[in-house]
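User: Hi! I'm a student and our assignment asks us to look at how structure tokens line up with a sequence. Could you show me two examples?

Assistant: Happy to help. In each example below, the sequence comes first and the structure tokens follow. Example one:
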Amino acid sequence: MISLIPKSSKTRASYLNSTEKHQSSSPSSSSPDFSALPYDVLGRIAASFTPPNLRAASLVCRAWRDALKPLREAMVLLMWGKRFKHGRGGVQANLSKALDSFLKGAARGSTLSMVDAGLIYWEMGKKEEAIAWYRRAAKLGDPAAQCNLAISILQADPPIFEEAIDWLYKASVAGHARAQYQLALCLHQGRGVEQNPQEAAHWYQRAAKGGYVRAMYNTSLCYSLGEGLWQSHSLARKWMKRAADCGRGDDEGCGVFGAGHQGGETAAAHVKDAIIRKLSAASRDKAMLLVDNWRALPSSC
């Protein structure tokens, strides 16, 4: 075997020393120095950080601690804003003080505060202000803001479909369950995008696995009718049971099935109407055909 290390002991020692020096100095010279990031860049990166992530980032180095000080202050303001909004923590509910706290937090760069400020403006009927704050937070990468912005502009007159689908997709890829559900609805209904039952079912499943109950309900329907997914009554029952266990109680979720069991034929008609409203035209036709062709099995008694 040919050796690439010099044979003389003196030369070998000098060779090894020089190699060790090179190896020890090379990582430090090639690794990036994150402490040198400009404050404004770091602020944009951390704008959507949750309090635990923000605290962890502040411990990286002194430069980061100093740069993230406004965002830490925003977290305190966000906490007080939520207390004033919901009347928690020993304070009386006060929407004006809540909004003031959220706006101060938003001014310090927190997208969480921007979203909450947008929610209050929306509840006050000031939709333009709400959309402006959602948009600002969405551009900073906040998935909740992206989802809220998309839903808001879908409800506009006229709806802005292309932009809404773009924001829903970004939030969905980031793992936001409500955005995944809303994207699936658009794909299922062909709203602002070409109708695609398979892709809709994919996003229903993603949202259902993320804990979004309405998506569990729709995933069950997809399996039950074989729309976008292979037909599987066992998987349909699995997702319906999971949704029921989560305890939805409105017309859009599995609570309608509980009402059907409790209220007899009147409630059953209510359940039928609620289900039909949720189906696409093709699914309705298929469901009606299955109902028309249904026959009771002979009794074994």
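Example two works the same way, sequence first and then tokens:
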Amino acid sequence: MVSDDHTSNETTIPNSDMSSSQNPNNQPFSPTETPLVALNITAQINEKLTPSTFSQWRAQFEALLIGYDLLDYVNGLSVCPSSDGTPSFALKITHWVRQDKLILSAILASTSNTITPLIATAKTSHEAWKKLNHMYASRSRMRAMQFKEEITLIQEGNRSIPKYLHAVKALADEIALIDHPISDDDLTLYILNGLGFVFREIAAPIHARERSLTFEELHDLLVSHDSYLRQLESATQNLVVSANYTHRKPNSGNSSQKTHGKPAGFSETKAKLKTQSFTTKHRAGPITPSESTSPDANFVTKLVTRPSCALN
């Protein structure tokens, strides 16, 4: 039944028993008890029909016609009644023709400029509907095959998990509009096959489940697992950076033992060598270990002892 609410988007054309004073817009009246319905396509169809949007357009238009109980007109189930010569049948014929023309007008108004001329010669809404289905239903089947191939081969790639899931769901919805809805198990299989190697740990339990997962449930699981992997990767990177910083930081305890990059004790050894060399020049013979008075004497002696013939 058509609502009488004044806020509705459709225009209900009143019956003929109402006076013209009650209809200031002078709209045509229905000669029967069933009111005529004029569809407001601009407000109720969000985009016009194009060669690539037939499935979406048909779904919206069919829902609109079902809501107003007018689908039988375009399906051919509601036909113009035959006249038996009585005034009552003449009124029914007039009502049917006028309602059918309102539907035909809505179809023409909801098509793009490239499609409108193709159905402009149609006399009834059913004829226009048949032409549109004949022209674009076969194309839709080809598009369904294309979408099925895409959803089979789709990969996550560089996309984020939410974007990847939305891309798969969009393909599944296109296939459902054109052909048949994809089952939850098949959709889950397509999604898991396109995921990267890092999701292998969660893919196995999902495959082993006895109950099918809906897309919403699978979406929540994969997004949560992706968030966990990102947190784990971030924690690992922070640990590596901290370890590298600790390794490169100079040791304050050993810094006093290094002078300009030279080993600790280098200056003392050099001074001892100079002293010992000076002492050796003023002695009659070579230095012996027993004559040394410091712990480093043996080391110094080995370095500075020369043959007796070389001493002055």
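Here is something you could point out in your write-up. The chain has a mean pLDDT of 75.
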